[in-house]
């Protein structure tokens, strides 16, 4: 299946989810994330501020923001800057995503774990993003553990990966946690 076809299918499948299913899925996925030793050991975690069609990260950020140092991405041209998360210092940025304000940009090398949003994942960690390549550029410069989080309808058996695509190390859905096998670049 081509990436655009995957995007259309996932968009249609997510549109069928009720608010209760969305809320339960986010609770289950982030509970699995909390159970990972890598999460418990991580000090600096790069999250994303969820869009309405994505697993909501808001409760998770609220729960852990005093125990961990959370960071969010901010679009800067064709790249993502990483800034500290502070709920009181967010603004709508590119693509109507809430992004952190300020000048305190952090190098991706200081991040221990990255929670990666995507449209879809496969069991090998390959992912389909929204098509702009922001996360591939960011992830290609990081040695942090990369964790993809998704609704069950976002998991596919196989996704065709391009040379520049950067896979994740773990994919978490409400009903499973898949540790992928990949070679470090």
Determine the strand fraction and express it as a percent band.
Answer: 25-35%
Structural class estimated from helices and strands: alpha/beta
Specify the biggest β-sheet: 7 strands, mixed
Helix count from the secondary structure assignment:
5
Gyration radius, in Å: 15 Å
Distance between the termini: 26 Å
Question: Total number of β-strand segments?
Answer: 12
Shape: globular
Please, what is the average pLDDT? 92
Identify the strand order in the major beta sheet.
Answer: 3-2-1-6-9-11-12
Indicate the percent of residues in helices: 25-40%
The arrangement of helices and strands along the chain is HHHEHEEEEEEEHEEEE
The quaternary state of the protein chains shown equals single chain
Poorly predicted parts: none
Describe, in plain words, how this protein is organized in 3D.
The protein is built from five helices and twelve strands. The chain is of the alpha/beta class. Strands 3-2-1-6-9-11-12 form a seven-stranded mixed β-sheet. Strands 8-7-10 form a three-stranded mixed β-sheet, with helices on one face. Helix 4 links the parallel strand 1 and strand 2. It is globular.
Task: List the SSEs and their pairings.
Elements: H1 3-15, H2 19-34, H3 37-41, E1 44-46, H4 58-64, E2 69-76, E3 79-84, E4 90-92, E5 98-100, E6 113-116, E7 120-122, E8 127-128, H5 134-139, E9 145-149, E10 155-156, E11 170-173, E12 176-179
Parallel strand pairs: 1-2, 1-6, 6-9, 7-10, 9-11
Antiparallel strand pairs: 2-3, 4-5, 7-8, 11-12
């Amino acid at each position: 299946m081509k990436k655009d076809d995957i995007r259309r299918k996932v968009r249609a499948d997510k549109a069928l989810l009720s608010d209760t299913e969305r809320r339960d899925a986010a609770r289950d996925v982030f509970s699995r994330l909390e159970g990972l030793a890598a999460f418990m050991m991580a000090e600096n975690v790069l999250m994303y501020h969820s869009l309405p069609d994505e697993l909501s990260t808001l409760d998770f950020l609220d729960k852990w923001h005093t125990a961990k140092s959370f960071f969010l991405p901010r679009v800067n041209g064709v790249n993502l800057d990483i800034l500290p998360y502070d709920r009181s210092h967010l603004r709508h940025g590119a693509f109507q995503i809430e992004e952190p304000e300020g000048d305190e940009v952090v190098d991706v090398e200081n991040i221990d774990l990255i929670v990666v949003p995507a449209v879809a994942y496969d069991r090998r960690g390959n992912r389909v993003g929204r098509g702009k390549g922001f996360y591939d550029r960011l992830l290609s410069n990081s040695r942090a553990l990369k964790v993809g989080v998704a609704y069950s309808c976002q998991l596919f058996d196989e996704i065709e990966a391009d040379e520049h695509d950067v896979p994740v190390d773990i994919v978490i859905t409400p009903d499973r946690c898949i540790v992928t096998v990949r070679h470090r670049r």
